Amino acid sequence: MGAYILRRLLLIIPTLLGIMVINFALVQFVPGGPVEQAIARAQGQGDVFGGFAGNQGDAGASGLEDAGPAGDEYVGARGLPPEFIEQLEREFGFDKPPLERFGMMLWNYVRLDFGDSYFRSVGVIDLIIEKMPVSISLGLWSTIIAYLVSIPLGIRKAVRDGSSFDTWTSGMIIVAYAIPGFLFAILLLVLLAGGSYWQIFPLRGLTSDNWDQLSLGGKIADYFWHITLPVVASTISAFATLTLLTKNSFLDEIKKQYVMTARAKGLTERRVLYGHVFRNAMLIVIAGFPAVFIGVFFAGSLIIETIFSLDGLGRLGFEAAVARDYPIVFGTLFIFGLIGLLVGILSDLMYVLVDPRIDFERREG
Fold first, then answer.
1. What is the pLDDT of residues 260-301, one digit of tens each?
2. What is the CATH number of domain 125-364?
3. What angle do CA 283, 288, 294 make, to 5 degrees?
4. What pTM did the predictor assign?
5. Distance between CA atoms of 135 and 132, rounded to whole angstroms?
6. Which residues cross the membrane (predicted)?
7. Which of 110, 169, 288, 353 has its CA 20 to 30 A from that of 237?
8. How many angstroms separate the Cα of 226 from the Cα of each of 137, 206, 231?
C-alpha cells in the first residue's frame, strides 16, 4: 500500500501542473485583464466591461478604444499618461513574458507564497482563511445530513424493494433531485424568510448583528438559525444519489450466497442485515464520504452563498474571476486542485480502512 500511495502522490505533480498550464494559457486570451480593470477604475468606470458594452462611437468620450496591433495601448488607456500604464504593468507583473510570469508563479507556489490580491491588498491565504468557515459550514452540514437521511432510507427501500413505500419515496427523491438548488433556495426565502409568508428564519448572513453580545448557547442557537435554510437548499439534490446508491448496494449484497447461508443458520433478519450485509454494502458509500464532502463544498456554494448573502469561498472566487484578480484565481485553483487530488487518495485509503481485503497494489500488478 505504501508504494501505491507514493505513486499517487508523485502523480499529483504532473496533474496539478497540467491544470495550472491549461488555465494560465486560457487566461491569456481573456479580454479585460487586471491592467485594463485598474485603468477603468482609475477613470471612474467601475470595471472595463462597461466600456466594452458601450457604443464604439462614444469611445473617445468614455476614454476607451479598441485594442490595436501589438505594441498599442491597452483598451482604456486613452487619456492616461504612458508612465501610469507602465507602472501598472510593473505592479501586476505584466512587463514580463507569459512564460516567465508562469515560472515565477509556480516557484512562489512551491514555497507556499501565493501573493496578495491585486485589488484588495490582502494576502490570498488570509482571504481564503477568512472565507473558508462559511463554505466549510455549508459543505460539512450538508454532507452529514445527506448521509444521516440517505443511509437509513436507502436500507429501508432495499428491504422493502418493490413495495408502495419504495415507489412513493423514489418519486419524492426524483422530484427533489430535479429541483435546482437555487430555485429551491428562493422558494425557502419566499416561504420562510419573510418573502411573502412567514418570517421564521433570517434572510441573510451567518450570524446576527448582536453576535458578540450573545452567550455561548445563544451563539450556537443563532448559528444554526442562520445556517438552516442554506444547508437545506444545498442538500436537497444530494439525497437522490446517496439513497439510490445505498439501496442498490444493499440489494446487490442481499442476493449473495453468504446472506442465504446466514439465514439458513437461523440468524434473525436484523442480524443478517446489520451484522453481515451492512459492512459490505456500505463500503462504497462510506469510502466516498471525502469526495462527497468536497463535491458539496465546491459545487453549489457560489449560488447558495449569493442568494443567502454568505461571504464564502464561492463568492470570493466569482468576484476574483470577474475582477481579473489573478492571484486569487490561480491561488485558489492551485490550493483546491491540490486538495481535490489528495482527497482522491484519501478515498482509496477509506476503502482499505472499511474493507482490509482491498489491495490496490495487487490490483495494479
1. 888 888 888 788 887 778 777 777 777 667 666 666 666 556
2. 1.10.3720.10
3. 170
4. 0.69
5. 5
6. 9-30, 134-153, 174-198, 223-246, 281-308, 328-354
7. 353
8. 11, 5, 9
